[in-house]
Design a protein that fits this description.
The chain is of the alpha+beta class. The protein has 3 domains: 1-121, RNA polymerase II/Efflux pump adaptor protein, barrel-sandwich hybrid domain (OB fold (Dihydrolipoamide Acetyltransferase, E2P)); 131-182, Dihydrolipoamide Transferase; 228-439, Chloramphenicol acetyltransferase-like domain (Chloramphenicol Acetyltransferase, 2-Layer Sandwich), CATH 3.30.559.10. 25% of the residues lie in helices and 25% in strands. The protein has 9 helices and 23 strands. Strands 13, 16, 19, 20, 21, 22 and 23 form a 7-stranded mixed sheet that branches. A 4-stranded antiparallel sheet has the order 1-8-6-3, with no helix packed on it. β22 and β23 form a beta hairpin. It is globular. The chain starts with a strand and ends in an 8-residue tail after the last helix.
Length: 447
């Protein structure tokens, strides 16, 4: 009987431990290779971890909400499909006090980059568990069936999915093929608009000394998630490091709103995902940085480090809190390339497919708090950057255009900047450049 170890993956060079958030399978349940087995949280990002082999989940060594070092054995899979009786525990070195139930990792456990004796133990970086097209993810099994049946990626995008987030499962594809062979019209895929939901950033915990100070039921004691703890520390450090100054400009988004409305259907049909306002804003920011590159800098002591590349952080609200994935080399992309990159980052954030590299190296950040209806905000700089742009909700308002009253689609943009190197003049000129790029957007732009 082959027994495969599942280990805590190392999600990046600086990651030393991970916390089990949720097991997607119970002991005795079957799991396919590359199917999501569990979710973990590190101090940088939450991720779904695929099964390293097909089989049955025979034993869970590390329970939910427990934190263990990377490469620690956290479960066992029985690859012959029969759950073996739990082997008697063998003497092991005394575990750390913080993790009394965690056995010491076997000395022979190989690094993640090397195969174990029975089967590899890939991480999402090393083994691409799913492929994406137009913001949708497909498991290797679905892709294999599609290839064998001659289903193109374009046609696969039209298959309705019943999985989480509209994902296409094996059964969905087989049902689609059955309908297609019978001559019945196949149902069209519909992608519901994402509904913002409160982030799950904390969980109830039992802390006796705090319960005495904050008795129930008047109080509830919650534990911050790893991501929220690190974000809180990062924001406090930013306020302590940078003298924050904010400039707010009003922007007439009418041309952008009309252009999007005119081309949204054509764009979605061609690209497979919806056209949003974000790529318009991203393109304007890239143009602004090229005109005023000092806002794309960092500070090292008394030296200014100006970046000759643009790695844009795009703040995305996820169920675990605010995540800022980074679009690398935005200056090299055209409008469609920017739209694809924005969609890819948002989809992988929602589906917990980000890696630590995806949230590092940003040189400038955009935070779109307008998606929640907020009109004006003052975002905190994402260190070691020196500026961040906050974009408010687009609302129709009365405006004066050439001494005439008109109804225009208006928004407020806020630039928070580090006054050590970005003064009011530079911040104002950069922000005005972004505003004018959007107000004078070329209505003849085609995709």
């Amino acid at each position: 009987m082959a027994r495969v170890e599942v280990v805590m993956p190392q999600m990046g060079e600086s990651i030393a431990e991970g916390t089990i958030l949720k097991w997607h399978k119970k002991i005795g349940e079957k799991v396919k290779k590359d199917e999501t087995l569990l979710e973990i949280s590190t101090d940088k990002v939450d991720s779904e971890i695929p099964a390293p082999a097909a089989g049955v989940l025979a034993e869970i060594v590390v329970k939910e909400q427990e934190t263990v070092p990377v490469r620690t054995v956290i479960a066992f899979l029985d690859t012959e499909g029969v759950v073996a009786a739990k082997a008697p525990e063998t003497p092991a070195a005394k575990p750390a006090p913080a993790l009394p139930k965690q056995p010491e990792p076997p000395p022979s456990a190989p690094p993640l980059s090397e195969p174990s004796r029975s089967t590899p133990s890939p991480t999402p970086v090393q083994s691409k568990a799913e492929e994406q097209k137009g913001g949708r993810f497909y498991s290797p099994l679905v892709l294999s069936i599609a290839r064998s049946e001659g289903i193109s990626m374009g046609e696969l995008d039209r298959v309705p999915g019943t999985g989480d987030g509209g994902r296409v499962r094996k059964k969905d594809l087989l049902d689609y093929l059955e309908q297609k062979k019978s001559g019945a019209p196949a149902p069209a895929v519909t992608t519901p608009a994402p509904q913002p939901s409160p982030p799950v950033t904390a969980r109830p915990v039992d802390v006796p000394e705090l319960k005495l100070k904050y008795p129930a039921p008047q109080h509830e004691i919650l534990q911050m998630s790893n991501v929220v703890q690190k974000m809180a520390q990062h924001m406090v450090k930013s306020i302590q490091t940078s003298p924050h100054v904010a400039a707010i400009h009003e922007v007439d988004m009418t041309n952008v709103v009309q252009h999007r409305a005119t081309h949204a259907t054509e764009f979605e049909k061609k690209e497979g995902f919806k056209l949003t306002f974000t790529p318009y804003i991203v393109e304007a920011v890239v143009k602004g940085i090229k005109a005023y590159p000092l806002v794309n800098s960092s500070i090292d002591g008394d030296k200014i480090i100006r970046k000759n590349f643009i790695h844009l952080g795009i703040a995305v609200a996820s169920e675990t809190g605010l995540i800022v994935p980074v679009m690398k080399n935005a200056e090299e992309k055209n409008f469609v390339g920017l739209a694809r990159a924005v969609n890819d980052l948002a989809a992988r954030t929602r589906n917990k497919r980000l890696t630590p590299d995806d949230i590092q190296g940003g040189t400038f950040t955009i935070s779109n708090f307008g998606v929640f209806g907020t009109m004006i905000g003052t975002p905190i700089i994402n260190q070691p950057q020196v500026a961040i742009l906050g974009t408010g909700a687009i609302k129709k308002r009365v405006a004066v255009i050439d001494d005439a009253i008109a109804i225009r689609s208006m928004a407020y943009f806020t630039l928070s900047f580090d006054h050590r190197i970005v003064d009011g003049a530079l911040g104002g000129m950069f922000l005005e450049h972004v505003v004018k790029s959007l107000e004078k957007f070329d209505m003849n732009t085609r995709f």
